Amino acid sequence: MGEKIPVAVLGATGSVGQRFVQLLSNHPWFQVAALTGSDRSSGMSYAEACHWVLSEPMPEEARELVLTPSDADLMDVKLAFSALPAKAALEVEPYLADSGVIVCSNASAYRTAEDVPILLPEVNPEHVALLDVQQRKRGWKGGIVTNSNCTITGVSIVLKALQEAFGVKRLFAVSMQALSGAGYPGVSAMDIADNVIPYIQDEEDKVETEPLKILGTFADGRIIPAGIKISAHTNRVAVSDGHTVCLSVELEERATPEEAGVVLGEFTLAEGIRGLPSAPRPPIMVRSEADRPQPRLDRMAGDGMTTVVGRLRPDLIFDLRIVVLSHNTIRGAAGGSIYNAELLVTQGLLER
Amino acid sequence: MGEKIPVAVLGATGSVGQRFVQLLSNHPWFQVAALTGSDRSSGMSYAEACHWVLSEPMPEEARELVLTPSDADLMDVKLAFSALPAKAALEVEPYLADSGVIVCSNASAYRTAEDVPILLPEVNPEHVALLDVQQRKRGWKGGIVTNSNCTITGVSIVLKALQEAFGVKRLFAVSMQALSGAGYPGVSAMDIADNVIPYIQDEEDKVETEPLKILGTFADGRIIPAGIKISAHTNRVAVSDGHTVCLSVELEERATPEEAGVVLGEFTLAEGIRGLPSAPRPPIMVRSEADRPQPRLDRMAGDGMTTVVGRLRPDLIFDLRIVVLSHNTIRGAAGGSIYNAELLVTQGLLER
Amino acid sequence: MGEKIPVAVLGATGSVGQRFVQLLSNHPWFQVAALTGSDRSSGMSYAEACHWVLSEPMPEEARELVLTPSDADLMDVKLAFSALPAKAALEVEPYLADSGVIVCSNASAYRTAEDVPILLPEVNPEHVALLDVQQRKRGWKGGIVTNSNCTITGVSIVLKALQEAFGVKRLFAVSMQALSGAGYPGVSAMDIADNVIPYIQDEEDKVETEPLKILGTFADGRIIPAGIKISAHTNRVAVSDGHTVCLSVELEERATPEEAGVVLGEFTLAEGIRGLPSAPRPPIMVRSEADRPQPRLDRMAGDGMTTVVGRLRPDLIFDLRIVVLSHNTIRGAAGGSIYNAELLVTQGLLER
Amino acid sequence: MGEKIPVAVLGATGSVGQRFVQLLSNHPWFQVAALTGSDRSSGMSYAEACHWVLSEPMPEEARELVLTPSDADLMDVKLAFSALPAKAALEVEPYLADSGVIVCSNASAYRTAEDVPILLPEVNPEHVALLDVQQRKRGWKGGIVTNSNCTITGVSIVLKALQEAFGVKRLFAVSMQALSGAGYPGVSAMDIADNVIPYIQDEEDKVETEPLKILGTFADGRIIPAGIKISAHTNRVAVSDGHTVCLSVELEERATPEEAGVVLGEFTLAEGIRGLPSAPRPPIMVRSEADRPQPRLDRMAGDGMTTVVGRLRPDLIFDLRIVVLSHNTIRGAAGGSIYNAELLVTQGLLER
Fold it and tell me: Could you give the C-alpha distances from A244 to A120, A175, A308, B175, B197, in angstroms and in order?
C-alpha cells in the first residue's frame, strides 16, 4: 500500500480515544497524524494532556503530538476516528464529513440517523452503500460511519450466524458490563466496590434497537430493520474490560445447542473481509468448558476482536441459552471502528 | 415464653453455620445448646475449630461450646438447624428426624422429596402440613423442613405477590450471585478477580424448579406444583453478600409497572406470621431510584430479611422487568431457616 | 440531659457529611437541626440533593430537611460539625466561630493553626484548653476544634499508649487506605480495579506531622510538639472502609511484643471520657490471631470507634512491628468529631 | 543454536507451572518435552488435567502432552524447571540433580542451602560458580539453581544498583502482594473481598534474609552475606498479578532522590547477559509520575521482566523512599527461572 494513510483521532484523551491511539500504533495501513482534545487540553502535547489508563504503554510516536481543538481543520487528513462524547459528536462529525473527511465514529450521536450505517463487517458490509445515500442527501464530500454500542457488538455477530442458519425471532439479553464502558473517570470506585449496579443510562434502549438496524436489509437506498424482538437488562459489574451477555434466543427453526455450536464455530467472513488487518481470527470462538467465556480469560481472544461464546444449552421457554463475551473497548469500540475503516479503504471510499 | 428453647446447629463451622450461630445469638426464643462439626473438628471448642469469616464478631457464648460429630445424639435438643453439605445432610437429617428432632435445613438434600416442604412463611405457611404426612409416611417422631435455594428466595416472594394479583405464566431469571453463596473457602480469589463466572454448578436447575414447588398448592396430602415456566442463567460476581436477580415476567393479566409496584409494596404477611421475631419488616421494599436495588446498599434492609425490588419497567416481550435483591446467607439461608422454625414453634410443632 | 442540643452538619451531602447525618441519628444528646450544602443544592430537601452512598439507610428525620448555604446564619445552633472541603472550611469555619458557634471540624484547613487543637479524647483531652487561647486571641465567641487525619487517628492512640509506657522515638508507617477516604466520587473505579495506587496527595506530610501536635504537651497557652520522628508511605487499596497501617516503632525503653500487647490491651480512658456516648469500648482491641486486623472483619469493632491492633512482633531494626486498623469515616472522621463534641459538652463549653 | 533444548516443567498444572508452560511456548532456545504433575493427574493430557488460570491461552503444543509423575525419569531432558511445592521439591529436585539434570527451581526448599545459589543475573551472575561446589560436595552430575522469592526479586535488583553507587545499610520494606503469589486456588475470594490481609505465612522471614545471600560475595567457594539489615511487613491485597513494595532505605553515602533516580535508570546488565532472550529491557524503569508504579499499569513492562520504580523522595528517618513493582509470576517466578537457565546455557553448563 506504499505510504500509510494519515488519520486523526477525535477526543483522543478519553479512554476510547486512548484505545484508538494504542491500536493505531504500528497499524499496517494507518498512521496517526492528528489528535484532538477539549479546549482545556488543546495546545498541549498528548503526553502532558492525557491521563493514560491502559495497561499497554502510551505509544512513543504519540507522546509529542500536539492536541488541536476537535472542530479544527484536519487539513490533509481524510479519515478520522471519533471518540467524542455524543454531544460534541453531534456538531463536529457533520462538520468534518461536509469538508470531505470520512468519520468512523464510536459515538452514538448518528447511529439512529436513517442514512448513517452501524457497520459491522461480519454482519452487514453491504450497509457501506448508505455512504452514497448520505453524500447525495446531505451534500457531503465525506461521511459518517458508526460502529455499534459495545454491548451489542458480539451479540449482533452471534445473531447474524444464528439468523442465517435458523432464523431468529426473539431474545432476552442480560448484560454484565465492564467499567471501561463508562469512560474515564466514569464509575466511582465507592459505587462499585463489593457491588453490582443494575442500571446503565440509556443502555437498554440501545441493546433493544441497534441490532434491528445492524441486522437489517439494505434495499432501495435504505435499511429495513430486522424483525427481531429484544428485551434487555443491563448491569455494571466490577470488571475492568469485557462485556458478558446472557442470551435466551427463540429461533424460527428449532435447533439443538450442538447444531448451534457448529454454526457459530463455522461462521466465516466474506472473502474481501477475511484479510483485513483487524479481522477477528476466528470471528467466533466457541468454548466447550462449563464455565466459559469469562472476561478475564477470554476478552483478549483474537487480540480482543473475536467474539467468544459458551454455555450453549437448551432454554425451557425459548430455544437456546448462550453466553456471549466481547472486549468492549477493542471489538466494541476503537478496534471495531478501525476495522470498519479498513473495509472502507478496500472499497475505495477514501480515494474519491 | 419463659425459658429459651435449646437448639443445635449442624455443620456449625462453615459459612452458613457461622451465620446460624451469629443470628441465634440473642434470639428471643432460641438458645444454642449444641454445635456439630466434621470429625476433624469434633472435640475442639468452637473458637478453636472455626475460621470465622463474618464481619460481625463470633458471639461470646459460642466460643467455648465443644463441637460434637454431626451424627451424635443431641440429647434434649428437639430443634436443629442444618448447615450440612448436601451429602452429609442426606444421612444425618433423617437420623435426627427419626429420633424426634425437627430439622430446619438449609441443605438441598431433601428439597425435592415429595413429603418435605420448602417453607417460606411469606408464601406457603400451609405447607407446614407436610410434616404430618412425613411423620406418618416415614414413622418419624421429628421431621425435616427445608428453606429454598438462596437465589430463589426473594424471587419466590415477588412471584407470590404477583401471582395473587395478576397470575404469573413465565419468567426469565438471570442472577448475579455473591461469593458467600459458594461457602468457604468456595471461590478462589484468582478466579473472580477482575472477572465474572457465568456458571454455578446445579444452580440453574434449582432456580427453574424450586419455585414451582414453593408456589404450589397443598391438597390431599401433597403439593401440586405451580404452573409456571422459568428459564434461568446463573452467574457469580465479585460481591461478598447479596444475590441480584434480573426478572422478565409474563403475567396472566396485564399490569403496568406502577400497578405491580403497588402490589409489591403492599404485600403483607398473614397475621400469625407478622409477629415472628425474624419476620421481615417490610416483607418487600420497593425502591424508586433508577439504579436500585444494589447489593452493598440494600442487602441489610430489614436486618437482611427484606426482599428489595426496583427498576420496575415494561418488558418488550413479556410484561414486566424487575430487579430483585436478597441477602443470600441471611434471608436465603440461616435467617430463613430460623424464621421457619419460629413458624413451627407458633404452630405447636415442637411440643409434641 | 433533658432536651437534645440542636446541631448543624456543614457539607452534609458528601460522604463524610452523610456519615455525620447517619451517626447523629438517634444520638442521645444531639439532634440535627440544620444541614448545609453547596449553592447548587441549597433549597433542596436532603433526600433530593444527596446521592447517599452508605449501606445504612438515610435517616428518616433527615430526608425532608432543607439544605441551606454553608455560610448562612445557623440561628440558634451553637454546635456545628464540618465536613466541608478544606477550601470552603477556610472561610466558613471562622465566620461561624466568630458568631458564637463551636465548630467540630473534619476539615484539614485549621489543623496546623497554632491555637486550634487536633483533639483526640483518648490522647489529649487537655488540649481543649486551646479554645480559650483561640477566643482570646481571635476575639471569637465560638471556636474551632479539629479531629485528626483519618490515617493517623488509630496510630496516634497506639502511640499514646506506647509513649506513656515506654517512650516512642521514631516510627515507619505504611498505610493501605480505603476508598471512602477520598470522598465521593473520589477514586475512579478504572484506576483501582485490580490495582494499588501508591500515592495519596498531601497525605504523607499529614501522617508525618499531625501526630507530633496530637501527642504534644499543652503548656503556657501553646502546644509543644512531641519529639517523635515519623517516615510515611501512603497507599490506596480496593477496600470500601477501614485504613490499615503497618508500623515499625522505635521505643525509648525496649519492650517485648508481649509487654506492648499488655499495655495496649489495658489502655483505658480517663474517667470523664469513658462514659461519653461515642467513647470506644474498648479503646484498643488487641487481636492475637496471626492474620488480624483486617478491614472487612475489624473495622466495625466498638461500632467503628475502637482501634484494632494485631501482629505484634519484634522488629529487626527498631523494636516493634504492629498493624493498626481503624474505621476512617467513623473513628477517623465523623465519629471522631462527634466524640470531640461530647467532650466539649461535658466541659461546659457549649453553655457560655 | 540449531535444535532447541528439550526441557521439563515439574509441577506443571499449578499457577507457576502454567506460567512456565506459557513463557516457554515459542522460546527461541527451549522446547517443552516433559510435564510432570501430581499422582492424581499423571497419565492425563495437560489439557485435561490442568485448570488453566492465565489470561493468555494454553499453548496448543502443550495441550496433548501427557503428564508424568514428578519423580519419574526425565530421560534425555537435561534441564528442568521446577514449580513444585516446597515439600515435593525437597525430594524430587536432588533426585534429578543427582541423575544429571540441571534444575532451575522456583521452590524455596533449597534457597537456604549453603551451596545452592539464589541466582539473579542482574545481581549475582558470579554465584553460578556454586554449581561446581554443589557437584563436588554432593557428587551430583546435575545441580540446583533457585530464583528468589517473588517479593524480593525487584527489591534485590534495586538494592544492587544502590549498593554499587552508594552502599546500603538498612531498609524497611512493606509489601502489597498479588493473589497469584499464593498459587491456585490460594486465597479464598471471601477472605480478600473488600479487604486486605496483613499476613503471609513465612514471607517476612524470606524478605529479611534472601537479599543478604543474593547480594552476598562469592569467595573461597562460598557466599559471604551482604551486611544489610532489613525489616519487613508483608500484606496480601486484591490484585491479580504484580507485587508492590514500599522501601525506606538507609545508604552508606547520602544521595538525593535525583541522584538515586539516575543510578537506577542507568543500571545496565553485564554484556553476556544483556543479549539473553529473557533479559529485561530495560532492567529498571524509573517512572517520574507522582502515582506510579501501579500493578495494573506497570507489571507488564519489559514483557513482565522489568523492575519498575517510582516515587523517589527523601525519607525523614533514613535516606530514600522508593516504591518498587515487579511481576510476581513472570519476573519473580517462572520468567526469572527461565532467565537463569539462559545464563547457564551461555556458560556451557548444560553441555557437560
Answer: 19, 6, 10, 13, 10
Return the C-alpha torsion angle D297, D299, D301, D302, nearest 10.
-160
Active site residue A104: no
Query: Which residues share a beta bridge with A288?
Result: none
State whether B240 and C296 contact (CB < 8 Å): yes
> What is the reported pTM?
0.96
C195: nearest CB among D230, D290, D296: D296
Residue of C15, C184, C190, C195 best to disrupt the A interface, most CBs of A under 10 A: C190
CB of B196 closer than 8 Å to CB of A294: yes
Residues of D involved in catalysis: 150, 243
Tell me the ipTM for this assembly. 0.96
Which of the 8 DSSP states describes residue B14?
Answer: S
With a CB-CB cutoff of 8 Å, which residues 80-109 of chain B face chain D? none
- Tell me the three state secondary structure of residue A143: strand
Residue by residue, pLDDT tens for chain C (352 residues) are 468 999 999 999 999 999 999 999 999 999 999 999 988 899 999 999 999 999 899 999 999 999 999 877 777 899 999 999 999 999 999 999 999 999 999 999 999 999 999 999 999 999 999 999 999 999 999 999 999 999 999 999 999 999 999 999 999 999 999 999 999 999 999 999 999 999 999 999 999 999 999 999 999 999 999 999 999 999 999 999 999 999 999 999 999 999 999 999 999 999 999 999 999 999 999 999 999 999 999 999 999 999 999 999 999 999 999 999 999 999 999 999 999 999 999 999 887 5
For residue range B121-165, list pLDDT tens digits in order: 999 999 999 999 999 999 999 999 999 999 999 999 999 999 999
Residues of B known to be catalytic: 150, 243
CA-based nearest distance A94→chain B, Å: 33
A186 part of contact set with chain C, CB < 8 Å: yes
Residues of D in contact with C317 (CB under 8 A): 170, 172, 229-231
Closest alpha carbon to C46 in C38, C32, C35, C57: C35
Q: Which amino acid is located at C138 in the chain?
A: R
Strand B320-326, strand B243-251: pairing:
antiparallel
Annotation says A243 is catalytic: yes
Asked if D240 reaches chain A (Cβ–Cβ under 8 Å), the answer is yes
Q: Which residue of chain C is at minimal alpha-carbon distance from B295?
A: C55
Q: Would you tell me which residues 260-319 of chain A have a C-beta closer than 8 angstroms to some C-beta of chain B?
A: 290-297, 310-311, 315-318
Close Cβ partners of C193 (under 8 Å, ≥ 6 residues apart): A179, A189, A238, A239, A240, B194, C238, D296
Beta strands in chain C (DSSP E): 5-10, 30-37, 67-69, 79-82, 102-105, 143-146, 168-177, 217-219, 222-224, 229-236, 243-251, 284-286, 307-314, 320-326
- Alpha-carbon distance values, B266 to A15, B126, B269, C45 (Å): 45, 21, 10, 26
C55 part of contact set with chain A, CB < 8 Å:
no
Interface-testing mutation among B48, B52, B54, B55, with chain C (most C C-beta atoms within 10 A): B55
Does the beta carbon of A197 lie under 8 angstroms from any beta carbon of chain D?
no
Domains and CATH numbers, chain C: 5-149+334-346 (3.40.50.720), 152-327 (3.30.360.10)
Map residue B17 onto helix, strand or coil: helix
Active-site option among A27, A243, A246, A327: A243
Inspect the interface and report whether the beta carbons of C239 and D194 lie closer than 8 Å. yes
Task: Please state, in angstroms and rounded to a whole number, the distance separating the CA atoms of residues D267 and D260.
Answer: 11
Distance CA C172, CA C39 (A): 42
**For A194, left (φ over 0), alpha (ψ -120 to 50), or beta?**
left
Q: Please tell me which of the candidates D190, D191, D240 has its beta carbon nearest to residue B190.
A: D240
How far, in Å, CA of D340 to CA of D329, rounded?
A: 15
The closest alpha carbon to C105, from C86, C121, C122, belongs to C86
